[in-house]
Amino acid sequence: MTLNQLLKQNQSFYGASVIAGEDCLDREVKSVMVLEAADIENWGKPGQLLLTSFYALQILDAENSRKFFINMQKIGICGIVLKLGRLISDIPPYIMDYCNYYHIPLITVPKTTQYETMILSIMEPLMRQMLRKQSTMQRYNDLVGDLLSGRMAERESIDQALHFLQIDSRPYYQMLLIQLPAFQSSILTDGPDAGEICFLIRRELDLQKFSYAYQQIHDRLVLLFNLPSGTSESDFLWLKELLDDMELPYQVTISNIDDRYHIEQLYHQTQDAHILANMLYTGNYLVTYDSLGFYKLFLDRNNLDRIDSLLTLQNKHLRKTHPELWKTLDAFISCGQNYSKTAELLFLHPKTVKYRISKLRSVLDLDFEDPEQVFRIMLDSRLFRLQNHFHSEE
Questions:
Q1: What is the per-residue DSSP string for 282-298?
Q2: Are 278 and 314 found together in one domain?
Q3: What's phi and psi for 222, nearest 5 deg?
Q4: Predicted structure pTM score
Q5: 325 and 268 share a domain?
Q6: Per-residue pLDDT reduced to its tens digit, 198-251
């Protein structure tokens, strides 16, 4: 509801006149407040319409009056309604000057107009509008949830849901799952909360003209993209850069691309990729379901017994008999064979790391220049993590 609509359609504003700021009547009215004190910087909100008889403003000198209007402009106050004849009969010229200069609409109403009547006449349509938005948002969330969970058996129902969500104009779909552990501790820190991070991500999506629907539950954000072709239109590096800039821990998994009738499978792919990636990687990651390769075999519990047969006997024995040496070897490889980084990761002295690696070289006849040996250590490390994860769930 804009100021223009309010003045034309609301009977409570019968006899109202626009005195200043006529060029800003297209502003949206989001709330209404009686102006009781001039400390607007402490309670003012964007889109707020202020009602006053000039009582709170009469005590301000010229400089504080100017500051008051500057604060109104900064906050985004949509306008002032001044009741004439109650306290003042004529508007001070400087008030009109400030309203015009700072683009604040100034509206006068007769002294017989009651605050209560104006407030109710504004809040009632705002409440109806809010309830409609809540109803629409609830339906939006329900439809996204039904699509992800596969509760829609009929193709016609899927078509209707995608049409309502406005993501049905293109033939292909892809899904992202974004896990942000920072959400869990945001109430204990000064960092952004879940809603703020979700808003920033969606704002970037809107700027890049993506067609998408979303679902946010606590620390997890799911994005369903509607794509024009069967190949990804973005590598989503912009998302990695955005999250890196916010200095947040994150885990992002990306599904394959499929048609509208396989959205449930795309959701399962992001979940499965998240499970595997958590076992395979430490720190932040952005991975695709496809990039996990043969590791996807172990999503089937029938294949768990195969993990042990894939491990090299030498690494199995080292991990069992000398777990600290295996931990050092694993960290050394994951740190790019950098002694300092390995020591920092394990909270050890670099000399200790060098001693252990030297011992491993001689005892196991390791050649860190041999890519095959390095690959086997890396592979066994990941297989051990998979094994530990599944055993911990039993």
A1: -S-EEEETGGGGGGGGG
A2: no
A3: -110, 130
A4: 0.62
A5: no
A6: 888 999 899 888 999 999 888 889 999 999 987 664 668 888 888 888 887 889
